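--- STAGE predict ---
source: upstream dedup step, 1 unique chain passed
mode: sequence only
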Amino acid sequence: MTHRPLEEALRPVRPHPADAAWDRAPEPDEVDPAVLAALLHRHGWQRRGGAPGRYGRWTPPGQGTGGTSLLVPESRAFPDSDDLLGEALVALARSGTPSAREVLVGLAVPSDEIRWWRDAPTGPGGTAPWTVAEQLRAAARQMLLAGALATRARAGYHGARHRRAAATLMESVLVGTATGGGLTAFVPVGNGRPLAVRLHQALYAAREAIDYQRATGGMDAFDGAVEAGVSRELTEALIALVRGTEGARIAVEWAPAAGVPAGCAAGVEPVEFSPGDLPVLREAGARYLREEPSVPVRITGAVVRMRRSGPRGDGSVRLRVIAGAEVPHIRLTLDEEAYRIAGHAHLVGLPVRVHGRLESRGGFRRLTGASGVAPVQVDEAERDRLMKSLQENLDFFEEACGEAPAGD
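--- STAGE serialize ---
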């Protein structure tokens, strides 16, 4: 069984939702003037006059009174509002300013925005070495994954649990370059707001727990921080973000079209972390890994691999989990009789049910104390699918007689 390393870089981002509406400028009648003005302000555009109560004149970040500007109506109360909005959207689409792209994305798909910055040396024109840019993207992915995992369960260490659901939650996230360098993730409000909210709360809880430890020497605050979404996965993401820099910042800003979620504040400063926080984060991660308890489970799964060192005795079995735990596969050791039952069930295309404890060691991928192994009846369609899987993977079914070592 293989798992994506936490340090692995982001996959290429999928188009954001199915019809790729984010990749075109929205129509004027789809745009709320107040939302457009809020996004312009967020991304560094400045209002420089305009007719009070009717429209404002906005210029890009760093630009004076000359050059490109947008006329944005304050409401739809005037007959020329749609014309002004249409002209503003065309100008944004044609603009070479990076912030213009971010404004258009925020209009096309209302999204909460998560930004990361690292205080690291840069080259000419704000360029960065390839490895530095990849480190930022990898750390950002780890952090999004930690937030997505925390929406599924509160745990100091998730391991392999909930990974599929978390990955699904991340599929619609868009990634772009943040204004002023760094990286921005656009998290759609429709299905991704729980991720943004949980990550926002977890980051502040982690900051408070670090400050408490540095002031008192105690790690107790990290226990309570689990409820806010702090985990070993988050501490590892923060370590990856801060390592090799003079500091890092993360900001979460809410979609103007959706407003501020309950329990969160608007306009808060980015959360900052420094190299001095690294020892505390490492200690917290080790503590979470050490103290996360094993879980009693009753798992139903299809046998996908069997191995033992001889024709008799205990053997190692790998199951593809169908129900009972939010992990894709588990490994377990069975005595001779249970191993025989699992083998027969596999040969006739039936899954098995087994009781045991899902151990945190190894990432909740191993079941210990296995008992009560029994085949489970399934409908014909599922049985046919299991049999097809068996025929396609006969090389993995290794009830070997001295040909393979025990274990997986």
